Each structure stands twice: as C-alpha cells, then as structure tokens.
Amino acid sequence: AQSVTQLGSHVSVSEGALVLLRCNYSSSVPPYLFWYVQYPNQGLQLLLKYTSAATLVKGINGFEAEFKKSETSFHLTKPSAHMSDAAEYFCAVSTWVGNNDMRFGAGTRLTVKP
Amino acid sequence: GAVVSQHPSRVICKSGTSVKIECRSLDFQATTMFWYRQFPKQSLMLMATSNEGSKATYEQGVEKDKFLINHASLTLSTLTVTSAHPEDSSFYICSAHRAGATEAFFGQGTRLTVV
Asked: What pairs with residue A87 in β-bridges?
C-alpha cells in the first residue's frame, strides 16, 4: 500500500521568505502525487499534481514541486511567501487515475508572519 | 473546470436524528465519488467509495449501517449519518472523479455538529 509522510506539522515563515513543505512517499508502483491546500472550514483545492510527466511541476499561486524518485520525495516550494498562503497543506499519493486508493499525509499548517 | 458542490456546508442536529449530506458534480459526470471524514487538525480519512448504480465500498472500520451512501445518478451521491451521536461530529468531505481525469475534485465540505 502507498503512503505519504509530511515532515513538520507546522511551518512558520516570514512574508517574502521561501516556503518549503516536505513530503515523502512510499509506493510499490509508480505513483501519482498531489498537493492540496485547505482553508478553514473548506474543502481541498488542488495546487499541483505529478502524473509521470515532467518531474518539476508548476502549480497555482506560484507553488511548484519536484518529483525525486531517488529520494522518494515531492516537496512543495514557493520562492516568496504571501500572507494569503497561510493554510493547511496536504500531500497525497495514489496509484491509479481512479483515486480510490488516494492516501493523504497528516498535513502541514503554514503560518506566514508579517 | 470541474465543480463539485456539497450541501449543506454546516448542519447542527440533535442526537438520535439522521442527517443527509449531498455531493453533486455540477458540470461533469462522476463515475466514482468518495467520502472522507476529517477530525480537527487531522488529515482526511477515506470512509467509502461509491460508484453510480452499485453499492458503496466501505473502508475497514467504517460502519455501513451508520453511514449510508447512495449514488443514484452520475452527478449525485448522498451520505446519510443515521442516528447521529456527538462522536459523529466532524467535517465530512466528498470528492468526485471524472473518467479520464488524473485527480478527483473536492466539495467544500460539511461541518456536522451533533448536540
């Protein structure tokens, strides 16, 4: 079975600083990997996804992630944090397009300090 | 885009009553819909997978008789929490999968509070 581990349940950065949210995955087959953002009392919004094409994936709101098979990682980055980026971020993995086996990480709460 | 609408967004009910949550795909036909439960400050836990016209597949530990799922059409799935108790209070999120897409699309979630 596949799984993801998000290192750091809480990350705090200053506005304008680099954002780095870590995600490592485990999968016996080539994975599909996703990053979602969740604002309070709302559903999940897809930031970006890796589906075996380019290893560097660019998403919305200036976020990007790089798939590194050798490190089994899919870390999320943004060069310059904005106050509006404060939210909960979830990394997820699945092994087929149907997503019924999608598994989420525990989440990382991003705080952005002025 | 692919829009999934979940209703209601927030509901308060008395202990012992039943609550129905709807999940609709507004602009596509959803071959599969998923129901998740999210506890405060925790991740999403998959409860069940529903395919249109067939019985839902429940994850281990999820009570089928407690959480009734109906997927009567390609655009609508419902989750009914029967005889709700305070421990059922949680945030419930649905997602819908469109054939050929590489990800599922999420509803806005429903905050259920049982008093």
From this structure: A110
SS3 category, B101: coil
Whether residues B49 and A34 touch (CB distance < 8 A) is answered with no
B:4-43 residues touching chain A, CB 8 A cutoff: 4, 6, 9-10, 32, 34, 41-43
Identify the pLDDT of residue A63: 97
pLDDT at A15 exceeding the cut of 90: yes
Comparing alpha-carbon positions, the chain A residue that sits nearest to B57 is A100
Over residues A76-101, the pLDDT tens digits come to 999 999 999 999 999 999 886 555 67
Residue A59 has pLDDT above 70, yes or no: yes
User: Can you read off the two tokens belonging to residue A55?
Assistant: 């290893």
10 Å CB burial of residue A40 (0-12, 13-18, 19+) is exposed
Q: Which residue has the higher pLDDT, A53 or B1?
A: A53
Determine the residue of chain A that is closest to B33 in CA distance: A100
Report the C-alpha gap between A26 and B25 in whole angstroms: 31
Pick among A102, A103, A109 to test the B interface (most B CBs inside 10 A): A102
Sequence-ordered strand ranges (E) for chain A: 3-7, 10-14, 19-26, 32-38, 44-50, 56-58, 64-68, 73-78, 87-94, 103-104, 108-113
